[in-house]
């Protein structure tokens, strides 16, 4: 837990039922990611690991932005060493989401630019409100994405689309984002409710088995097909060894609902 008082924090972490909710709370600056906020996000994700929750929702305070990216005002006049450390900090913080034992869902209201898009890309899933606008506009600043965007975007939407989005820095509106697979769904109405309903579609299943499924899919794009198939054989065998697999298969035969116990 950070030594700063909760009142001074710009990242809030709460528990709502069996979900953790992380809120970027700097709406006056469109929730831009100062280095202090990045560190707070990292600390909050570490705390989620100790919470008794089944998924993490990430949202931005205010109705204008999920997050407008790295704090541009902090980026100027930095040494190259500091700049590289900054990129590595952002990458390391977002990579914590890959290793978290529960899935994460970005709830994107309004702008998700630069590091904001990269935070959403690092989540397991993305839901967008109809007014959501994604973009990696770094090129307009004479920069390129540095918090994982050049690596995660092509994995999600393909190299050609990723190059076009990154090299033009253009906006991608919610509807297009859904068409190209950048978001899982565009949802009308209350995003938090939609996120809770989306999470409920998978959180009733076995947590360790869900984690194995995530690991297998995440690693798919890191390895050649035959290595990936070997890894899948190993992880699916691990899933088979869980008590939850035994329960799931018994419940099928006995024509009843499975009672998973996360073991
Ligand atoms: N950094 C710092 N402050 C930011 C910010 C950012 N990324 N984005 C917005 N703000 C601040 C503005 O400076 C403004 O503050 P003041 O009122 O003190 O001037 C406040 O938030 C509101 O913003 P605007 O007045 O600009 O609001 P708008 O509705 O006119 O425009 C916007 C909204 C189109 C998102 C525009 O703010 C914008 O283009 N922001 C920058 C987006 C961007 O380029 N992001 C990429 C950053 S680089 C990066 O992220 C690198 C990486 O890979 C990690």
List keywords for this structure.
single chain; alpha/beta; six-stranded mixed beta sheet; 47% helix; binds acetoacetyl-coenzyme A
| Relative helix content | 40-55%
Ligand kinds: acetoacetyl-coenzyme A
**Strand order, sheet with most strands:** 1-2-3-5-7-10
Shape: globular
CA-atom Rg in angstroms: 19 Å
Query: Which consecutive residue ranges, at least 5 long each, have pLDDT under 50?
Result: none
Beta-strand portion reads 15-25%
Largest β sheet strand count, sense and barrel closure: 6 strands, mixed
Order of secondary-structure elements: EEHEEHHEEHEEHHEHEHHHH
Number of strands: 10
Structural class: alpha/beta
Distance between the termini: 28 Å
Query: What average pLDDT do the residues reach?
Result: 96
Count of alpha and pi helical runs: 11
Would you mind describing this structure in some detail?
- This protein is of the alpha/beta class and 263 residues long.
- Helices cover 47% and strands 16% of the residues.
- The protein is built from 11 helices and 10 strands.
- The strands form 2 sheets. Strands 1-2-3-5-7-10 form a 6-stranded mixed β-sheet, with helices on both faces.
- Strand 1 and strand 2 (19-24) form a beta hairpin.
- The longest helix has 20 residues, at 80-99.
- The protein is globular.
- Acetoacetyl-coenzyme A binds at residues 29-30, 32, 68-73, 90, 111, 113-115, 118, 137-138, 141, 143, 145-147, 149.
- Acetoacetyl-coenzyme A is lined by residues 29-30, 32, 68-73, 90, 111, 113-115, 118, 137-138, 141, 143, 145-147, 149.
